Amino acid sequence: MKRVIGEVGPYAILTRARRSPFESLVRAIAYQQLHEKAAESILKRFMALFPGRRFPWPADVLAVSAKAIREAGFSRAKIAALQDLAAKALDGTVPTAAAIQRLDDEAIIERLIAVRGVGRWTVEMLLIFQLGRPDVLPVDDFGVRNGFRLAYGLSSMPTPKDVRQYGERWRPYRTAAAWYLWRAVDVAKRRVPPAL
């Protein structure tokens, strides 16, 4: 890690503008398995279903027809996820922006993975890039594992368990370690000359 930190320089993670957990998860669902431009286009059409609002509220999502959401570009599976997310935001499973600040990371993960279509990785990205939590190590993330492989000169990809165990030494700053592991991949790409 010392070599990677020396090559990359100071830790500088960029957190996104503050959004409610509901909005963040709607956006995450929209982006699942899609190219960024396609997801943005779908989100734009989706948000047009709710004129006068910067972003729809959970009750708004439940009030609009599945057909309208489908016409905006969401798949049936994602519509089911959005509807479940909205229902769980209304029943309190998905905390408000104020309430989520009072919860620890594991409590947030436990609550949010109860939402259809939302897994641990999605919640970990919310913890890192939305909430700015300092001690998150997304061991299932391919980039983190590949960065670990590159940083430590391993011949094969480490398992999530391997990264989790080794990562204990980085507490309580595992988010910074994850950020440097992602950068290790970027550094390795810059070293490889382009194909002719």
Characterization of the model:
By secondary structure, this protein is mostly helical. It folds into two domains: 21-130, Hypothetical protein, domain 2 (Endonuclease III, domain 1, Orthogonal Bundle); 138-191, Endonuclease Iii, domain 2, CATH 1.10.1670.40. Helix content is 60%, strand content 0%. Helix 1 (2-8) crosses helix 12, helix 8 packs across helix 9 (120-130) and helix 10 crosses helix 12. 29% of the residues are buried. The model has no long low-confidence stretch (mean pLDDT 93).
Outline:
The protein has 196 residues and is mostly helical. The protein has helices at 2-8, 21-31, 36-47, 58-63, 66-72, 76-90, 97-101, 105-112, 120-130, 142-151, 160-167, 174-191.
Contiguous uncertain segments of 5+ residues? none
Query: Tell me about the biggest sheet?
Result: none
* Percent helix: 55-70%
Structural domains: how many: 2
The coarse silhouette is: elongated
How far the N terminus sits from the C terminus, by CA atoms, comes to: 32 Å
Beta strand %: under 5%
CATH superfamily of the largest domain: Hypothetical protein, domain 2
Order of helices and strands: HHHHHHHHHHHH
Count of β-strands: 0
> How would you state the average pLDDT, rounded?
93
Number of helices, where a helix is a run of at least 4 consecutive DSSP H or I residues: 12
Structural class: mainly alpha
CATH topology category name of the largest domain: Endonuclease III, domain 1
Rg result: 19 Å
- Under CATH at level 1, the class of the largest domain stands as Mainly Alpha
The assigned CATH architecture of the largest domain is: Orthogonal Bundle
